[in-house]
Write a structure and sequence with these properties.
Pfam families: DUF116. The protein is of the alpha/beta class and about 220 residues long. It contains seven helices and eight strands. The protein has one domain. Helices cover about 45% and strands about 15% of the residues.
């Protein structure tokens, strides 16, 4: 009986939050979602973290979208995850540049296509981010540290991040990283963000909506 009551309470709380957030403007809903994430995780063990993160990203993208579209291509950075690489990918890892594609590689690769698209449009740079946790012995930084360092190097105005919900909630979904003027806050140079979430959190053979990612890269006013 206690278990049923708890589940009912969780469902009612989430439904109430959903209704409230739909009524609020993005500038108000975003800080509420970010601030309540950890308290809700503690209070509601049955919370669907993946759905919560996706809802937060949708609100955040909407909040920052207009300013991002106004950001010139040559003031943007693109970060892509190496988990989207092809199964037989012959790339090498560079601690400062991430995953490096060999010029002679003939494998069909949407990841390489998206990176090249951004560079052709005039982006400051486009990086394929490697997991520092898995490649620590090779001198690779943790992915968050890698992003912060590259942002400090280039000083962009806008950034596109393509990542999974697990990475986002563990490394970025914190009140101190979000400001009206951009993300990262006191942990680095504030930037206007847009996020394209992966369809799962697998570190190999992950998937993404490539059309949505391309539209995000091309987006401008």
């Amino acid at each position: 009986m206690i278990k049923k009551v708890r589940l009912a309470d969780i469902s009612a709380t989430l439904q109430a939050n959903e209704i409230m957030l739909k009524l609020l403007p993005a500038w108000l809903a975003l800080p509420i979602l970010v601030t309540l994430y950890k308290p809700l995780c503690r209070l509601l063990p049955g919370l669907d973290k993946d759905a919560y993160v996706r809802r937060t990203v949708a609100v955040g993208n909407r909040f920052y979208a207009r300013r991002f579209r106004r950001t010139p291509y040559d003031r943007r950075l693109l970060f892509l995850p190496y988990c989207l690489r092809a199964a037989d990918c012959p790339t090498t890892i560079d601690p400062d540049q991430g995953l490096i594609c060999p010029p002679a590689c003939n494998l069909p690769c949407r990841l390489r296509e998206m990176r090249q698209l951004a560079l052709d449009l005039g982006y400051l740079d486009a990086y394929i981010v490697v997991s520092g946790k898995l490649h620590q012995k090779e001198g690779v930084l943790r992915s968050r540290n890698f992003l912060v360092r590259r942002i400090e190097d280039h000083q962009p105005q806008g950034v596109i991040g393509c990542l999974c919900t697990r990475d986002l909630r563990e490394k970025y979904l914190k009140p101190e990283t979000f400001r009206a003027g951009g993300t990262l806050g006191r942990h680095g140079t504030p930037v206007i963000p847009q996020v394209c979430l992966l369809e799962n959190s697998r570190c190999r053979g992950s998937q993404v909506n490539w059309q949505q990612l391309e539209q995000l890269i091309r987006s401008r006013e």
